[in-house]
């Protein structure tokens, strides 16, 4: 299950980013995940397990699909809608490669500030 190592890496990235702020806890993490990269349910389960006892424990995990970008040898980059049964709908050639859609992007971290900062909520976008 490679979702466990991915969850650990996400936690490390979140911790690295929030160290730059006076954070008391992380309340939410927004991820954009390629639909062919991981099983989202397994990733959520692993994130819940690896975040126990950390600033991220109990944080809401929001996962949004990242659309795959396919590559036609003649037409170039295509969206999933432009490919039907593995064939480019523009020129009719078979699609043999992908340019994206297998990525995992840490899009936003929501957190609460330490008591000295009145416990207000903030976020880091485009991490």
Mean pLDDT: 86
Helix content: 10-25%
Distance between the termini: 25 Å
**Unreliable residue stretches:** none
- What structural category characterises the helix and strand content? alpha+beta
Give the neighbour order of strands across the main sheet: 2-1-8-9
Biggest sheet descriptor: 4 strands, mixed
Total strands: the figure is 9
Shape: elongated
- What are the secondary-structure elements, in order, as H or E? HEHEEEEEEEE
Number of helices: 2
Radius of gyration: 18 Å
Strand content: 35-45%
Any overview of this molecule?
- This protein has helices at residues 3-18, 40-50; strands at residues 23-34, 60-66, 69-72, 76-79, 83-84, 87-88, 97-100, 104-113, 121-125.
- The protein is α+β, with helices and mostly antiparallel strands.
- The strands form 3 sheets. Strands 2-1-8-9 form a 4-stranded mixed β-sheet, covered by helices on one side. It has a 3-stranded antiparallel β-sheet with strand order 4-3-7, with no helix packed on it.
- Strand 8 and strand 9 (121-125) form a beta hairpin.
- Helix 1 packs across helix 2.
- It is elongated.
- The two termini are 25 Å apart.
């Amino acid at each position: 299950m490679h979702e466990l190592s991915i969850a650990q890496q996400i936690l490390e990235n979140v911790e690295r980013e929030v160290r730059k702020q006076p954070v008391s806890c992380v309340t939410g993490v927004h991820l954009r995940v390629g639909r062919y990269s991981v099983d989202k349910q397994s990733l959520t389960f692993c994130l819940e397990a690896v975040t126990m006892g950390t600033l991220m424990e109990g944080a809401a995990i929001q996962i949004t699909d990242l659309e795959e970008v396919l590559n036609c040898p003649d037409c170039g980059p295509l969206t999933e809608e432009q490919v039907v049964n593995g064939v480019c709908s523009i020129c009719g050639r078979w699609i043999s490669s992908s340019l994206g859609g297998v990525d995992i992007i840490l899009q936003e971290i929501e957190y609460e500030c330490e008591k000295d900062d009145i416990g207000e909520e903030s976020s880091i976008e485009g991490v």
